[in-house]
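Thread: quick sanity check before group meeting

JM: Hey all, I'm pulling together slides for Thursday and realized we never actually wrote out the predicted structure for the chain we discussed last week. Dropping the sequence here so it's in one place. If anyone has concerns about the input, flag it before I start.
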Amino acid sequence: MFAGFMMNSWIVATMVAMVAGFVGFFVVARRSSFAAHVLTFAAFPGAAAATLLGVSELLGLVVFAGLGVVGISTLGRNDRQEVATALCLVSLLALGTLFLSMTREYSQGIYALLFGEVLGISNSQILPVAVMSTIAIGTMATCFRPLLLDSISPELAAAAGVSNRFWELQFLTVLALCIAVVLPVVGALLVFSLMVGPASAARSLTDRPLVAALLSICIALVTAWAAIALSYVSNWPVGFFVGALGVVSYVSGRVYRRSTPRPDR
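JM (edit): ok, ran it. Output follows.
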């Protein structure tokens, strides 16, 4: 399990889980699961385009995730964000289908993009993931307080001089960066599991924002590590265990919250 060929998987999965857990806290706090879903598939055609052009897959993921941010932010003005998000999803999925149809790595590329390839991480992938993970976590940590205020009460944030539009764009940008890091490891269909499951469980366990964010990271780490270990032992896909453990963590958090007496307010 800790042989040389597995070490890259453990290292990258650890970085990915930390980013997903931290950013996922804000995804849940801001009720932005749909936007996260769309940006996941915004990155999807980027990887396909990179394969078609023969350039770095990570570069394609970042560029197209950025285009998704621009699309949602630009079209989502005047309180039409859900419609804009859905339109971006449709158009980017169409582009992804077109790009994949033009490559010769169709079946292998589809599987890797949709379900990840955590056990096939190469040495060359570690440094880019480490750099982008550091940028994502550093940005969110620096912006923690104003972004939290904007997430909990946009009206109060606006009264305090916090620009809702600016922080929405800032959040979407970091979310896109997070997805670009996470997607090659767990795949487009399972990014939700690593971002939303642990963060939702953490929110159920505590009402303290900083503690919830740290708990989200810890649960995401346990999820990623357990998924790799169970996959190694059972020879089942890592993605299955990531998704299953994400659901288990969410359900466990809800059960705990329902069974724990809440103090009167």
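AS: nice. Residues 4-190 form a domain with the ABC transporter involved in vitamin B12 uptake, BtuC fold (CATH 1.10.3470.10). Residues 227 and 241 are 5 Å apart (CA to CA).
JM: adding both to the slides.
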